[in-house]
Amino acid sequence: MDLPFEVVDLPETDHPEVGDRVPDFERPLVGTEFWEDVALSDLTDEAPVVLLFHSMDGAFPATYVWNEVRDRGWLDREDCQVVGLSISSPYEHADLLDDRGVDARLYSDPSNGVAERFDIVNDLDGMAGVEEPRPAVFVLDGERVVQYAWVAEEWPDFPDYDDVEAAMDEL
């Protein structure tokens, strides 16, 4: 079968692992109604966080991920918060949420600085100077300690959603 894209192996990374405390950051957090600057620690102070790094809005992986999150009912859970992060602007995030019918919140990080701090940068093939986070999922407790980590080893790649859900159930 010919794929409409090329599968690319990604280089090794030194991303946060289970038991590591992830760095705090503050970026615009976009919801369906508005956005405001919010620190990750503000969210983890409220409840555990499932932090989903995804490709730029409009790329098929972002669509697939948010369809899966929506269809699994993760956004309706009361025991944790599911929050996305990509290089897309707040305006693009608002469009993604509206187009997908998803009532989520997404961090906007156009400089890709958070992915750099997590060591999960993906330099996009054929686009000089353009990078985004590689697909990744970190399930964080109230202290920002990783309880589950998955980072793509190739692009495109998707997490094992059952494994993520199991980690959410253990919070």
UniProtKB/TrEMBL annotation:
GO MF annotation, one: antioxidant activity
Superkingdom of the organism of origin: Archaea
Protein name from the UniProt record: Alkyl hydroperoxide reductase/ Thiol specific antioxidant/ Mal allergen
Keyword Magnesium: no
Sorted UniProt keywords: Redox-active center
DNA damage in keyword set: no
PROSITE patterns (alphabetical): THIOREDOXIN_2
Domain Thioredoxin span(s) in chain numbering: 16-171
InterPro entries from the UniProt entry: AhpC/TSA, Thioredoxin-like_sf, Thioredoxin_domain, Tpx_Peroxidase_subfamily
Coiled-coil segments: none
